[in-house]
């Protein structure tokens, strides 16, 4: 179904027709040149040859245009970006989990159990809230704060962009604060704050990640309530640009995997995202 969706896009047909006509033109030029040089040779003339040329051109265009996994390798910087459909918590790589600037963890009154952070508590920490809080407290020791807020739950604000890095078995989990909590424990963010948070995230991963692969969700939806101003397609592009800019200063990781929920993945213009990834090779 996803491939059929890709095949219905204008981007696919435009690329398919461009590549097919380019191949047709190239083969026609070669055959015409051959006929001029060797007019006595008739083997490359006639209807069968024309049909063969058209078929070859169509197959060539289809091969170059057929939807593939959304992935791109880069040499400068030497890294790779992959966009996949899946469950973040099923990834075996380093993980990035979005959170709020007070690093609240209590479910369901403050953090929704259906959110990625709420699911991470259950899946990765076995629902042990005290263990997660202890690890976050340890990770935040020495981090600067920006004030306090009178509300239920945690009240110390560390500011947007703060990263609490905790160890989970042989990997790291980067809890990234990209949203601010208000007095009603409602999280809010903006595209500017997401951009700032991502910049600080890449810096932390570069220092602590030791290369390897890092999986990130679509940053900006969920608790940050940005889906209306920063839909998944734009949030993914924002993440990619931020990552590439950071990687040109110093290596962040070997591969960035952007893991998209199935309900969001089916809405993406996947060919556009692949084209966007490819365009960054020469930028």
From TrEMBL:
Thoeris protein ThsA Macro domain segment(s): 81-261
Keywords from the named record: Membrane, Transmembrane, Transmembrane helix
Transmembrane segments: 12-31, 43-62
Domain of life: Bacteria
InterPro entries tied to this protein: ThsA_Macro
Presence of the UniProt keyword Membrane in the record: yes
Protein name: Thoeris protein ThsA Macro domain-containing protein
The species this protein was found in: Duganella margarita
């Amino acid at each position: 179904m996803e491939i059929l969706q890709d095949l219905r896009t204008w981007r696919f047909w435009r690329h398919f027709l461009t590549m097919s006509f380019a191949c047709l033109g190239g083969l026609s030029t070669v055959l015409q040149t051959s006929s001029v040089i060797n007019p006595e040779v008739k083997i490359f003339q006639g209807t069968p040859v024309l049909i063969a040329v058209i078929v070859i051109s169509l197959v060539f265009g289809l091969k170059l245009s057929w939807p593939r996994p959304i992935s791109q390798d880069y040499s400068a910087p030497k890294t790779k970006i992959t966009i996949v459909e899946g469950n973040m918590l099923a990834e075996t790589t380093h993980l990035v989990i979005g959170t709020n600037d007070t690093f609240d963890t209590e479910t369901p009154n403050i953090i929704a159990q259906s959110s990625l952070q709420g699911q991470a508590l259950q899946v990765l920490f076995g629902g042990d809230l005290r263990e997660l809080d202890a690890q976050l407290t340890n990770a935040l020791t020495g981090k600067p704060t920006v004030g306090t807020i009178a509300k239920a739950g945690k009240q110390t604000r560390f500011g947007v962009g703060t990263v609490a890095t905790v160890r989970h078995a042989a990997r790291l989990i980067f809890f990234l604060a990209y949203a601010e909590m208000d007095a009603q424990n409602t999280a809010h963010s903006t595209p500017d704050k997401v951009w700032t948070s991502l910049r600080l995230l890449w810096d932390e991963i570069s220092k602590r990640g030791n290369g390897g692969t890092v999986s990130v969700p679509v940053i900006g939806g969920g608790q940050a309530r940005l889906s209306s101003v920063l839909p998944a397609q734009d949030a993914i592009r924002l993440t990619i640009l931020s990552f590439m800019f950071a990687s040109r200063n110093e290596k962040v990781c070997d591969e960035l995997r952007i893991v998209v929920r199935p309900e969001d993945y089916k809405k993406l213009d996947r060919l556009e995202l692949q084209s966007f990834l490819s365009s960054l090779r020469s930028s």
